[in-house]
């Protein structure tokens, strides 16, 4: 006679029950079920826990890397796939600028050597650009680094702001008027003194973080009417003087607009240093006003 070491429950197993071999005694099935339910769930070992944590961190790092690569690709595309302004000649047709935010304007007149623009107000960050004689590259590099530091986090909010175009450099009036920075970078000169400015992203409006460096100032540039002439290549002091002279002479014959009294030259540079000279876009401009009829 068969002796069982544990009590059994009588279980009715239909012949058509799925997953149970035909002919298996019901008592054996019941015993196996009880034994299975009595086995405790196996706990995860410390090694398995560490492995799971490492895998989870690796997954997060991979997702973060993909986001960083996506952001990098997006930023690179702004330079790899530039845009162009409307061209008046072959030289302008070859010029290209990064697809970054820039100053908003409306062209109201086109002439052979320049165009007249109505420029909307914008904010700039500005600093003094040391110079020994006119447009000085060493001074420009120092001023650029000061402004870039403000733009990329050296400010009251430790906020990294988007790069914009162009960078302005402008001559300072003899009264040594101080100006706020903008983007593009602007260099202003009085005798041999210049100022440089970055135009700031428009999304901030007037709510811009304050610079930590006291040599950097924030200023709103009012809406203005500007006569603008574009040219390629690298900006040099002699080139700026020559372009300014040509623009002033050309504007003498304009029937609608004249140079505003005490207007100083502004130079806008749109491209990073690695851009080929013949594809670079630079602009030289003077503030103008309509002639009195």
TrEMBL record:
Name of the protein this chain belongs to: Heme-binding-like protein
Family listed: Belongs to the HEBP family.
Top-level division of the source organism's lineage: Eukaryota
Source organism phylogeny: Eukaryota, Viridiplantae, Streptophyta, Embryophyta, Tracheophyta
Entries under InterPro entries matching the protein: Reg_factor_effector_dom_sf (IPR011256), SOUL_heme-bd (IPR006917)
UniProt-listed PANTHER family: HEME-BINDING PROTEIN-RELATED, OS02G0533200 PROTEIN
């Amino acid at each position: 006679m068969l002796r069982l070491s544990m009590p059994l429950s009588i279980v009715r197993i239909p012949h058509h029950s799925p997953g149970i071999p035909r002919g298996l005694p019901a008592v054996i099935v019941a015993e196996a079920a009880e034994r299975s339910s009595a086995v405790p769930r196996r706990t995860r070992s410390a090694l398995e826990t560490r492995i799971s944590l490492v895998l989870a961190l690796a997954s997060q790092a991979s997702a973060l890397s993909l986001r960083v690569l996506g952001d990098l690709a997006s930023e690179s595309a702004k330079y790899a796939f530039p845009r162009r302004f409307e061209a008046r000649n072959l030289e302008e047709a070859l010029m290209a600028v990064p697809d970054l935010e820039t100053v908003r304007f409306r062209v109201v007149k086109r002439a052979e050597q320049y165009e007249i623009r109505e420029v909307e107000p914008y904010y700039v960050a500005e600093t003094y650009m040391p110079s020994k004689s006119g447009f000085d590259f060493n001074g420009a590099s120092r001023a650029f680094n000061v402004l870039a530091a403000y733009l990329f986090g050296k400010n009251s909010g430790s906020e990294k702001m988007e790069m914009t175009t162009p960078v302005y450099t402008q001559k300072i009036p003899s009264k040594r008027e101080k100006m706020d920075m903008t983007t593009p970078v602007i260099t202003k000169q009085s005798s041999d003194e210049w100022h440089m400015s970055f135009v700031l992203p428009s999304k901030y409006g007037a709510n811009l973080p304050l610079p930590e460096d006291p040599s950097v100032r924030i200023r709103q540039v009012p809406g203005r009417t500007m006569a603008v002439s574009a040219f390629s290549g690298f900006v040099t002091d002699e080139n700026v003087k020559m372009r300014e002279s040509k623009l002033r002479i050309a504007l003498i014959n304009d029937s609608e607009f004249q140079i505003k009294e005490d207007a100083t030259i502004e130079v806008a540079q749109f491209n990073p240093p690695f851009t080929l000279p013949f594809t670079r876009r630079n602009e030289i401009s003077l503030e103008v006003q309509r002639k009195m009829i």
